[in-house]
Write a structure and sequence with these properties.
This protein is mainly α. Helix content is about 85%, strand content about 0%.
């Protein structure tokens, strides 16, 4: 596909991870020292392994329950996880 295709892939890679340093700094700043390693560990785990774990789960749910119900269940699960870990953020 040539050089332009490679440039597009590099651009996507940069755009997809440009927010990471700011998000990590926010997590460190907003989380107490006591919970910081747990929240960062959950963030790194979800960021690196989340897609690999969710793909087979979503496929299984779609096969057995249909697209709408499968995506809804996974979305609600992710929302619950986000709410649980947001509790550990410090509120000033």
């Amino acid at each position: 596909f040539g050089l332009a295709f490679g440039a597009v892939l590099v651009g996507f890679g940069i755009i997809m991870y440009a927010y990471v340093p700011a998000l990590q700094a926010y997590i460190i700043e907003q989380t107490s020292e006591r919970n910081r390693s747990m929240v960062l560990g959950a963030y790194f785990f979800a960021n690196m392994e989340g897609g690999g774990m969710l793909t087979p789960l979503v496929g299984f749910l779609i096969d057995h329950m249909g697209f709408y119900h499968g995506i809804t269940i996974v979305s609600l699960g992710l929302l619950i996880v986000a709410v649980i870990f947001s509790i550990f953020l410090r509120h000033d």
